[in-house]
Amino acid sequence: MSESTAPSEDAAAYIAQVRAEIEADAERRRRQEPEIQRREREIERVWIDVAPPGAAGEQGELLLDRADRLSMIDVDAPLGAKPGVRQVKGTIRKAVYWYLRYVTDQVNALTNVLVR
To answer: What local confidence, expressed as pLDDT, does residue 1 receive?
Structure first.
């Protein structure tokens, strides 16, 4: 049984060694070229925007950031492109805007407090 685990242990040690060498080389290059550091930060910011929760950064901070961006409710519903539908939806939107705006302002204020 030790014969079957020995190659896997050697492989794991080799992989760890290669990873350490790659990380050391990457760190050396980062120190030499500030442009690489800037690009890495930019890529990391973009990744955080599109990554699933928990895949990048601290999960709590990431979830709060996403909740903050998604918590705002917009009253302005799209009207559509068809001429008749556009006028009907526009009339309905004007008729209920004052009430929906009042409610969404309260909900947005609450979510702003909860997320902060």
So the answer is: 46
Question: Is the pTM here over 0.70, yes or no?
Answer: no
Interatomic CA distance for residues 48 and 111, integer angstroms: 22
Q: Are 101 and 75 in contact (CB under 8 A)?
A: yes
Helices then strands, counting H and E runs in the chain, come out as 4, 0
Map residue 113 onto helix, strand or coil: helix
- In angstroms, the CA 84 to CA 44 distance is 46
Integer Cα distance of 102 and 73 in angstroms: 11
Residue 111 to residue 90: CA distance in whole angstroms:
28
